[in-house]
Amino acid sequence: MQTGTNFLIAGEWVGIATLACAALVILGFIFKWGIRFRLVGATGLLGVVSAGLLALSLVPITRTVIPGAMRFSRVYDSGVTQVVIALPPKITETELSATLRQAANDLFSPGRLSRGDQQLTIRARTILHPEPGISEPLYLGQIKRSLLLRDDPQMETTIFQESLARLPQSQAKAG
């Protein structure tokens, strides 16, 4: 994972390259090189990249890790208020709860638009195969969180117990 120090070092090197390119621009104008205007563009681009890298060195890039959460994949995202994640069929209730909270943290974005609804709803589903050649989607739970607050203290987690009971591991424990 990149840290602020790595971005600072990269920013310094790109900054040095920007200054070197600026020196070439000055020489290009003095000696009337045909490439001088392209060098101006390259210098501007390097300036923007170095400023971006230096800004990334100031802002910490952190990712909250929820203990017990499983890996998930996003299978649907409206870009607004609805997201569906896919989970393996062998999951426990505690893993599901932790994974929903992890997804709520990972998928939060202040850039999501709200169309009257101020909450992001993330649903977790898995696929069951009751018979060969037949696939059945099964929704296991959902979490609702604020679209506006990164650290939402009032996230609502709902676990669908009847769906959890249909999972293969639940049948093995019952038998």
UniProtKB/TrEMBL annotation:
The keyword Transmembrane applies. It comes from the Bacteria. The chain crosses the membrane at residues 7-31, 37-61. InterPro entries: Uncharacterised_Ycf51 (IPR019664). Keywords: Membrane, Transmembrane, Transmembrane helix. This is Protein of function (DUF2518). The lineage of its organism: Bacteria, Bacillati, Cyanobacteriota, Cyanophyceae, Leptolyngbyales.
